[in-house]
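Now produce a polypeptide, keeping tokens residue-aligned:
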Amino acid sequence: MLQIGPTMVTAGQKLVHHQARIDLLQLEQSRLAAELEAGEEWDRDGFNSPYDWIRINCHLPGNVAGNYLTVGAHLPQLGQSVEAVLKGEIGYAHLAVMARTADAVGAAFDENQLLPLAREHSAGKFHYKCLHYRHSLDAKAYAAEENEQVENRRLHLSTVQDGSLLINGVLDPAGGAAVRTALEPLARKSGEHDDRVLDQRYADALVELASGGKPANIQVTATIETLKGLAGAAGAEMEFSLPISSAAVQRMACDCSVTRVLLSQESVTIDVGRSKRVISGPARKALMARDGHCRWPGCERPASWCDGHHVVHWIDGGGTDLDNLVLLCRMVHEGGWQLIKTESGQTITIAPSSPFMGKSPP
């Protein structure tokens, strides 16, 4: 808490007080924006529009500049709402939503129907109420806007220099809701041990959704030396990816449908293997039933988040029988960890710094 004079003022109280002052300043900014738009200053200064003039000279993002202009243009229709801002009953954010609604519905706008809702709800919830109001006035115009959003949908995929995939796009409300509905259940935390941030959980959920809950079907082109992880070997190649390491190939091959294309050192194709499920459906179900969750010591992530891993990798001659499989959620191949299963079924890990590194687990 902060002390001002003889009274104690909390940080929260100061935030509310300062925001009320900011709301009044934004209200004045809107009035000045309307004055600027009606004049010639922005044109004399060589700008394409008052919007650009405000955005550049006031160092503002476009949505804020747009709010100033929209509110300023509709101030004559918003007398009661402006008075409510002055009294602290609603915020400038409510006024901006009100002005954009007036802009959308034109002459049918009725401030009296919306102001009680603005007083009752937060600015975000008030926005939803205004959308219902717009639909009630002109359902066809509302549908036309939705159709325009559908036409403007896009999804851009690009691979950056390190091989990561950048995803950028816009979905219409219905499409976005479908994606969110599918992602949200998959992006929930699995328990107290789940230390992933929300964005990471969304990323994992998108990959899981894209694979349909099944391991990916991949084609890997590599030399035998790469598959064996021998020193001096080049990386492997995979569609839609930059060259990948032998460790990545070994990890993916544990529980993926793999079509292998083996090359000699002279890049001559010496073998093309048919795509097959390294760990088949029945074997995976049995593995999930046996292990129940990630068997990494101390980890309890559920089986649906895990992959089947070979204790002795199949590249090194390990079989795909249940005794040689373990359910893991960690990328033990890239991390350099090794696994040992005791006769009792306990999984023991060997850290990369262990002197046993480089040897096959017993």
Q: What stands out?
A: The chain has four domains: 2-149, 157-210, 214-278, 279-362. Residues 268-272, 354-362 have pLDDT under 50 and may be disordered.
